[in-house]
Amino acid sequence: MFSSLLTALSGSAAATKMLQEGIVKRLSEKSVIVHEGQYFDSIPILMDGYAKMVMQQDSRSFMLQYITPVRCCVMPYSAVNRQVQSRIGIVAETDVAVLYVSTEKILKWICEYPSLNEWLQYQYNDYEQVMLSVVQQLLFDDLESRLLHFLNEKARLSRTTMLVIKHKEIAAEIGSVREVVSRTLKKLEKEHKIIQHEHAVELLSF
Prior knowledge:
It is a single chain. The two termini are about 25 Å apart. This protein has 2 domains: about 5-140, Sandwich (Jelly Rolls), CATH 2.60.120.10; about 140-205, Winged helix-like DNA-binding domain superfamily/Winged helix DNA-binding domain (Arc Repressor Mutant, subunit A), CATH 1.10.10.10. The strands form 3 sheets. A 4-stranded antiparallel β-sheet has the order 1-8-3-6. It has a 4-stranded antiparallel β-sheet with strand order 2-7-4-5. A 3-stranded antiparallel β-sheet has the order 9-11-10. The chain is α+β, with helices and mostly antiparallel strands. It has helices spanning about 5-10, 15-20, 75-80, 105-110, 115-140, 145-160, 165-175, 180-190, and strands spanning about 25, 30-35, 40-50, 50-55, 60-65, 70, 90, 95-100, 160-165, 195, 200-205.
């Protein structure tokens, strides 16, 4: 688990410092890692399991992306500025391990370890690309394409083509409504791309 951070930071002293002075917490599935609107005194880094990034709007939530190990659970440069509130929430999709590293120490180490600054810049650029991809999907992709993308990503991360999930949950994740999702899933089933089971969807074209 911890070797992945060392690999990501090319085995640098920065990774060793983060592991030595950070605090690892194990959280159960559906635990909130980051609350929308919170301020940060530490940067949470996902070490094991996977989580989802969500945004709330008018009492509805919309999933932006899944977060995999050795990823910051926040926009890193926003998090080190304590006056900036998080605009997104992070929720554990599985049992997870999260490394919390003090923002004060991160600010200090950025100056001492170039590899850390490069890694944080990579994280920032990656988040930026994800946001652009989400906007493109909403503007140009139809619901069927977005739904298949969501199911494929979930299958890839959970390593199974049998996804235990309700239509209502899918709708909440992709920013739609249950009735529309149900109709789209029925269409995909007719096209032999999925098989619907009770409380589950099986992917055939994964």
